[in-house]
Amino acid sequence: RSDDGRRRKCCSLREEKALICFKQLLSLKQQEADRVREEELEKLRQFDLDWSFGPCTGISRLQRWERAKLHGLNPPEEIRDLLLQTHADPEYNLGLWSGYPL
């Protein structure tokens, strides 16, 4: 019986350690995802601030990108790709001045 108790205790300790490692791994992955998201949003903010692609008030970032492309202003393809990948997220799609009416 004492062997059974030790085995259960040993297994529960292993399971507890595994759970702690799993939680730490999830935390690290979330931190990495947050870092990547912040870097992406910073690139989009810099796109908003670059007046060489025309004004951005009253339109989405993708609309602005497409308008700049149409007028031969050579907006970064990286921005378009990012916007197409994240089209459902308003934080990505709406520019810095999206809350201001025309």
TrEMBL record:
Pfam family name, one: DNA_pol_delta_4
InterPro entries in the record: DNA_pol_delta_4 (IPR007218)
GO cellular component: delta DNA polymerase complex
GO molecular function (one): DNA-directed DNA polymerase activity
GO terms classed as biological process: DNA synthesis involved in DNA repair; DNA-templated DNA replication
Name assigned to this protein: Uncharacterized protein
